[in-house]
Amino acid sequence: MSKKDKERKRDKGEKESAPRLAGALQSDITRASRHMRTFLTNALSTSGVYAGQDGVILALAETDGLTAGAIAERLGVKPPTMTRTLARMEAQGFLKREPDSVDGRQMRAVLTDAGRRHVHAIELAVKATENFAVDGLSDKEVRQFLKVLRKINRNLGVVEPEEDGFGE
To answer: What 8-state DSSP symbol labels residue 111?
Structure first.
């Protein structure tokens, strides 16, 4: 099938099976993720917030007083990684760890005023990164892409919320 025929078929809405190249999906998803992370890191560079810390601050801004395990689960990282991240962020003054009021063995992370001051800048940097990444895509294409990514995550054993950020 010629390139013009493929374009006509696509324009008419006919289904064409996507070619499956070994490793192409994984490679492209990984590359896109790295580029987004680099873009976000650069957008945050003047704030002193490092890659990975943005998600912690946003999670605590939404629900302050989470345990390391709860934050790790929300962000999809291992608890030991989160414990190290929280220690670094505590040293930077972004948060403090306090014993749980019921179970004193459990520690809960709480944003400090310094950490709270970064919430708006992080939200803006995340929004700018996402807007830059989807530039030229329609809202429908973005929704479809998110739907496909969520299906991939479910197939790989990661349960994601259905909400897509577009009010549907």
So the answer is: E
